[in-house]
Every structure is written in C-alpha cells, then in structure tokens.
Amino acid sequence: MTTETNQTATNKERDKEHRKGEFAMKTSPIVSQEEWEAARQHMLVKEKAFTRSRDALAAERRRMPWMAVEKKYEFDGPKGKVSLLDLFEGRRQLIAYRAFFEPGVFGWPDHACRGCSLGADQVSHLAHLNARDTTLAYASRAPQKDIERLKARMGWKMPWYTITDSFDTDFGVDEWHGHNVFIRDDKDKIFRTYFINNRGDEAMGTIWSYLDITPLGRQETWEDSPEGYPQTPTYKWWNWHDNYEAEISPDPKWVQVSDAGEAAFRKRDAEAKP
C-alpha cells in the first residue's frame, strides 16, 4: 500500500469519526416549512440591517484621511527591479497583501504559510478588479524563482513580488499578514489610504471585499461617496472576465437585462414595506 493510499484511508477514518460526533450534537429544532420561512424572514431583517451597516462603514472608509508615501521602495519582480509605483501596473489603486513565504516560515520551501495560502486560494478572477482601475499584488521575502515555483504549483495568478527593503516594517506587516491600500494621483504621488489585517483578512477574496476597502469603492452610483468620485451605473460595467478589453462600453443587451433586474428588485422591496 502506497503512502498516498495510507493517507486517504486515514482521512476517511477521521471523517467517519467526525460524522459520528455530529449526530451527538444538540441540533436546532425541526419545524414545518411555514415555521422555517417565518424564522428565515425574521433573520433576513437582521441580515439586511447588517448589509446596510457594512455599506455605511465602507462609505466612512472612503472618507478616511490619506497618508503620503514619501519613501521610495524597491521590489524584485519577474522581470527585475520595480518600484511601488510599478506595482500599480498603471491603474489608480493598489491593494498590496503581505504573504509569508520565505525561509523560517512554516512550510518553506514547499509551501507558503497555511493561512496566507488559504487566502490566496480565495482570490477571485482579477480581471473584474482590474476593470475598476484596481490592482491586487502579493509580496513576500522569498526570491522570485521560489515564488514562481510556488505559484505554478498552487495555480495562483496574482502578481507576486519580493520585498527587498523596509516596506513590510514601515507598513505594519513585518511580523503578520495584512492588506495595505494605496492610491496614486495624476502626478504619480502615492498615498496610503487603508490597512486591514488579523481577522479582517478572513473576508478578503471577492471583488466586493477588495473594492470596499479602497478609497474609490465599487464606483457605482448607489454608493455614498464624496463628490466627484468616479461612479458608473450599477451592474452596467459587469462583464465576462475575458471580455473587458473587447468591450469598453456596456453591451446594450446587458444594460436591458440589468435594468429589468433592478426594476424587479425595487418592486419587491416596495411590496415588502409595511
């Protein structure tokens, strides 16, 4: 029996024992469909309130003060030395995640940190984030040859750079992971606008979780953003991830479909009000 077969058998036995424990739990009450629907509607009120509070928090985040980044930072990239400005890849906003993959970190040299790796597995298709003028980049202290090997093994597509100076220390990620958010102005002046770490990192991975920590937000007209911030009609910019470059403006058919969807949502919400 091979090592892989032994591991599979061990996992099955462990899962079997885990399922046995589930049946010993004190479960929730079993109710009728009507009672279940009533309980769900009661919970929905709280969930909608949570969503609104999350939107309000993101709106407040967009009004956070900015900190000018005066120091010049240098990274190693797949094609050589690059600056912090280069990490933007020409876009307006940058989210830089400090992942731990380097000598001394558990898993080296085969794996990055387990927590950082779980986060990397959650990263959604970057084309949608890029379409909102935002770049996501990872950074570690491992050499590029090791980073490229790791990315190929794990199937990760995000740009990943090597930290070569005090970037991690200066931005609070020398000992723990975290997302730093930056924006650049028309003169390529860089500003730090937000920072999220610890359990806040758990929610990251979707396009919306990333955009909600940026100074420009989702850039849709329903958002509460400062005057003059870029905004486009809700849903209209959405596209297939391989079609953004082909279609600069929204497809008329998609506009019609999304308009109908919005109208249906508004009607449903209006009917739900007492």
Give an overview of the whole structure.
- By secondary structure, this protein is of the alpha+beta class.
- The chain has helices at residues 3-22, 33-61, 84-87, 114-122, 126-130, 144-154, 167-170, 207-211, 252-272; strands at 67-68, 74-77, 80-83, 93-98, 134-140, 160-163, 178-184, 190-197.
- A hairpin with a 2-residue loop joins strand 2 and strand 3.
- It is globular.
- It starts with a helix and ends with a helix.
- The mean pLDDT is 92.
User: Would you identify the CATH H-level superfamily of the domain at 67-211?
Assistant: Glutaredoxin
Number of strands: 8
The share of residues in helices is 25-40%
Radius of gyration: 23 Å
Mean pLDDT: 92
Question: What top-tier CATH class of the domain at 67-211 fits best?
Answer: Alpha Beta
- Helix-strand string: HHEEEHEHHEHEHEEHH
Q: Main beta sheet, described? A: 8 strands, mixed
The gross shape turns out to be globular
Strand content: 15-25%
The rounded distance between the terminal residues' Cα atoms is: 66 Å
Query: Major sheet: order of its strands?
Result: 1-8-7-4-5-6-2-3
Unreliable stretches covering 5 or more consecutive residues: none
CATH topology of the domain at 67-211: Glutaredoxin
What would CATH call the architecture of the domain at 67-211? 3-Layer(aba) Sandwich
Structural class: alpha+beta
